[in-house]
Specification:
Number of domains: 2
Radius of gyration: 38 Å
Strand order of the largest sheet: 1-2
Number of strands: 6
Distance between the termini: 76 Å
Structural class: mainly alpha
Shape: globular
Length: 629
């Protein structure tokens, strides 16, 4: 089987796994997240074996053709692989540290003090580990490895532009389907999630999720993923500058069903986000939309006028969606419930837990025990607190500050590459822009909730970021290829005569395309009676100097402008046509007989052409250099 066919099969399998992840309660149950991790592990194994076999068959890859473009493609592939290897190395260090925390045999001097206290209280020795809950840590390690595997597969398999578009399309359609299901359940009053009774958030749209905040994050990502095919479709219709009327005409004549489908999916997703009732989810989603629009403007994917029109339409759509949601979201926005105060109390206790173990942490998956251990009574709740409602703070409590910084560095490097792709302003810049907007949505919402900790949300996020990062690096490759072609053009045509690669580049024609251009002398030229002035010398336009090309004006004398002379002659011809044959010309000469032409006092000859109303006697006068005609 060819490697491209195997890659396509693996990519389709990866999309299927990620799109089905939200179905079984967002995969936030032991069986679904175990199956998700197993499926990703199988895909990684198959992909790794395929790469190994391909490397063994081809041997060391070298470009012996001397083709600059082929060499650039090979160099870019090596750059992508090196970046992937760097990410895998950093990720492996992070996972190794989490494994040390969860293993009593490896913790050693890092063992948590709580184990010694428990052993003294029980009177029996206990295996001490750095983590307070090693079993939960091992489960989280499995899930985090699956998320990293999804990113790696998306990054390696999503280099192809068509596959990348397919990935964003798949997430958009999956989000569309889950939004339709959530709205159907909401408006029919079923109050169920799949076949389970909906006990939590019965008045909110949660689709197949239990938590409305987590679903708001997922639905927002699906809407932002749908913006990518929307931009492609709109750009296809607006390749040339169109007036609003012509744009509406093109919209009615050349629109494919794809555009209507993606618009429907986006509107449905926006309604679902609004009906979740998640205040932070809606606010972060609006912020992400603003980031996406500004990113498109910076990347020159849209013009300023299109940006303003789109902003107006977006505001109108948001207002319409909020009005469709009734007063549910409005009540949520003005409510005075104690959730913010409760979160603030949790954050205070979590900071105390970080201060206890700032470098080692309390162990992955050990936020609950660490919170209870550090709680000094300032945060009292009726339920067990096992989540911090702030992903960054929770990572600092569990893994320590170094692990938090390493995690942010890994994600930040991918987002940074997407930002570089945005500034490169390539053809596929909409994907890096969408990734930046998605990272804004997830990152901002993670400061007040734990939506990204749901397996379905994390898997979708890693898939989209991985694809966009691969496309951002492809944009950098395209820019390098353009620079290589420009350099080849300079070597072929000489310095300053390269072929343009953009519409706004200045063009200097090669020597074979230069055209001889008439240049008159700088001195005034007065023609002899009855004859025209001799033509000037011919020079190429590129060799002309500023003092060689001056405007020439034809007039009756040196003091009369061309416009006045032409107007006077036209008036004289009009008088002659109405019968004024004896009317004197405006220059004071003797009236002419019909059918004769004067030539500075010479008698008319019989072989002169008939009078056509055009003055045949004129003086060619060189105007001053700074004069204006």
């Amino acid at each position: 089987m060819r490697s491209s066919t195997m890659s396509t099969i693996l990519y389709w399998a990866l999309l299927g796994i990620v799109c089905l992840a939200p179905l079984p309660l967002a995969s936030n149950r032991p069986l679904p997240w175990s199956l998700l991790s197993l499926a990703v592990g199988v895909l990684l194994l198959v992909w790794g074996i395929g790469r190994l076999i391909a490397a063994m068959r081809s041997g060391p890859t070298r470009d012996m053709s001397g083709n600059a473009e082929a060499a650039g493609r090979l160099a870019h592939a090596r750059l992508v692989d090196r970046y992937a290897a760097l990410l895998v190395t950093g990720f492996a260090i992070l996972i190794a540290w989490y494994w040390v925390q969860a293993s009593p045999a490896l913790s050693g001097a890092f063992a948590h003090a709580a184990w010694a206290e428990a052993a003294a209280a029980l009177g029996t020795p206990l295996p001490a580990a750095a983590g307070l809950d090693p079993a939960a840590g091992e489960t989280l390690i499995m899930k985090i490895v699956a998320y990293g595997g999804i990113f790696l597969l998306a990054f390696e398999l999503g280099r192809d532009r068509n596959r990348a578009r397919l990935g964003f399309w798949a997430i958009c359609l999956a989000g569309f389907g889950y939004a339709l299901y959530g709205l159907f359940v909401q408006f029919t009053g079923e109050r169920t999630v799949l076949w389970f009774a909906k006990d939590a958030y019965p008045d909110s749209v949660t689709a197949t999720f239990i938590n409305r905040n987590a679903y708001a994050t997922y639905a927002g990502m699906a809407v932002l993923a749908g913006m990518v095919p929307l931009v492609f479709e709109v750009r296809r219709l607006t390749r040339e500058r169109l007036t609003p009327l012509r744009f509406l005409l093109a919209l009615s004549e050349r629109t494919s069903p794809t555009l209507y489908l993606v618009i429907t999916a986006i509107i449905t997703g926006m309604v679902a986000v609004a009906l979740t009732g998640s205040r932070a989810g809606v606010a972060c989603f609006v912020l992400a939309l603003v980031v996406f629009a500004v990113g498109l403007l910076i990347a020159r994917e849209i013009r300023l006028r299109t940006f303003l029109v789109g902003a107006a339409l977006g505001v109108g759509a948001i207002v319409a969606v909020l009005s469709m949601s009734g007063d549910f979201l409005a009540k949520r926005l003005i409510t005075t419930e104690s959730a913010p105060e409760a979160r603030a109390s949790v954050f205070d206790v979590a900071r105390l837990a970080v201060a206890e173990e700032p470098w080692v942490g309390h162990g992955l998956g050990s936020f609950g025990p660490a919170f209870n251990r550090a709680n000094d009574g300032r945060a009292v709740f009726e339920t067990y607190v096992d989540l911090a409602h702030n992903t960054y703070l929770e990572l600092a409590v569990e893994g320590g500050i170094p692990a938090l910084l390493l995690s942010l560095a890994l994600i930040g490097s991918a987002v940074g590459i997407c930002f570089a792709g945005l500034l490169a302003r390539g053809r596929n810049a909409s994907m890096p822009v969408a990734a930046i907007a998605i990272a804004t949505l997830v990152g901002a919402h993670a400061t007040v909730d734990f939506g990204v900790q749901m397996p379905a949300v994390a898997a979708t996020f890693m898939l989209l970021i991985g694809i966009a990062t691969a496309q951002a690096m492809a944009i950098e490759k395209a820019d390098a290829r353009i620079e290589s072609r420009r350099a080849q053009g300079q070597r072929r045509f000489g310095r300053g005569r390269s072929r343009p690669h953009r519409a706004d580049e200045a063009v200097t024609p090669p020597p074979e395309l230069e055209i001889a251009w008439p240049v008159r002398s700088t001195a005034p030229v007065l023609p002899a009676p009855g004859r025209m002035a001799a033509p000037g010398t011919l020079q190429p336009l590129s060799r002309m100097h500023d003092d060689e090309a001056r405007p020439i004006t034809i007039s009756g004398d040196a003091t009369t402008s061309a416009d006045a002379y032409e107007a006077a002659m036209a008036r004289w011809r009009a008088l002659r046509q109405v019968g004024g044959d004896n009317v004197a010309p405006p220059d004071g000469s003797t009236p002419l007989e019909p059918g004769t032409v004067a030539s500075d006092g010479e008698p008319p000859s019989g072989d002169e052409p008939p009078d056509d109303g055009t003055p045949r006697s004129a003086k060619v006068v060189q105007l001053p250099r700074n004069s204006r005609t």
